[in-house]
Design goal:
This protein is of the alpha/beta class. It is built from 6 helices and 11 strands.
């Protein structure tokens, strides 16, 4: 039976370290039937109904393809979580999405491969409807929170999920743009699909931290990304705080 204590989870990594500071663990272990989760979820003290899960583990040690997405989602499900807000650092494919932009995509294209991507077995098969990968009602609550906090938010777009950890080639980004993608990241899949299999509403909140390959004036560097994260982080945290306060 689910523990009704927690109704909301925030999953994130880059830019959300502040949510993990001095937070109490929500359980004793990160173990699940699918192996260990990235980290033990932490209680968000000011919001007792919410937990934070560090997607990349403490110290940001897990690369995108190394994350145990099944364990993470299963663990949140065991805690009774009824909705997930997933935060992503992404590259902007659409030229209108400059560094520091916050965006709430409506659709997804999955380019990942080789990741454990389903809870399905021959005995327990999930044919989850994934036509709308991001929950409409949850997106609406995030849009209302952004409006209430006075924070600009692009309320549409298509997330292209790539394998990583390398960045994409210019030709790959050109293909993704032809496919309709407006942002590119490495961690939304299979996370979103697994949440859908367990019928947990899921929305993705993107923080644009660099122009995608061929969309900016220079070679992509981690230092530039960190600078963009630092610039956008206060607005991201204000938006999440307003969402947690009102949601």
């Amino acid at each position: 039976m689910k523990d009704p204590e927690f109704t909301l989870a925030v999953i994130g990594g880059t830019g959300l370290e502040a949510l993990d500071e001095d937070a109490e663990p929500a359980r004793d272990s990160a173990d699940t039937p699918y192996g260990p989760a990235s980290a033990i979820p932490r209680r968000l003290g000011a919001f007792p109904h919410a937990v934070f899960l560090n997607r990349h583990g403490e110290g940001h040690v897990l690369l995108p393809h190394e994350i145990n997405y099944r364990a993470n989602i299963w663990l949140l499900n065991e805690l009774g979580v009824e909705a997930i807000v997933a935060v992503f650092a992404v590259g902007g494919i659409a030229t209108s999405l400059v560094d520091g932009t916050l965006a709430l995509p409506t659709q997804m294209v999955d380019y990942t491969w080789g990741r454990e991507h389903t809870f399905s077995t021959r005995e327990n098969l999930y044919h989850a409807d994934f036509s709308e990968p991001f929950d409409t009602d949850l997106r609406g609550r995030l849009i209302d929170a952004a409006r209430g906090a006075g924070i600009p938010l692009v309320d549409h777009g298509v997330y292209g999920a790539t394998q990583g950890p390398r960045f994409e080639t210019v030709a790959e980004i050109d293909r993704m743009e032809r496919d309709g993608c407006t942002v590119v990241g490495m961690t939304a899949m299979p996370e979103a699909g697994l949440a859908r299999e367990l019928e947990i509403p899921y929305a993705g909140l993107c923080m644009v931290v660099n122009p995608a390959a061929g969309r900016g004036p220079a070679v992509l560097t981690v230092d530039d990304m960190r600078a963009a994260v630092a610039e956008a982080q206060p607005r991201l945290l204000r938006l999440l705080t307003e969402f947690l306060r009102t949601g």
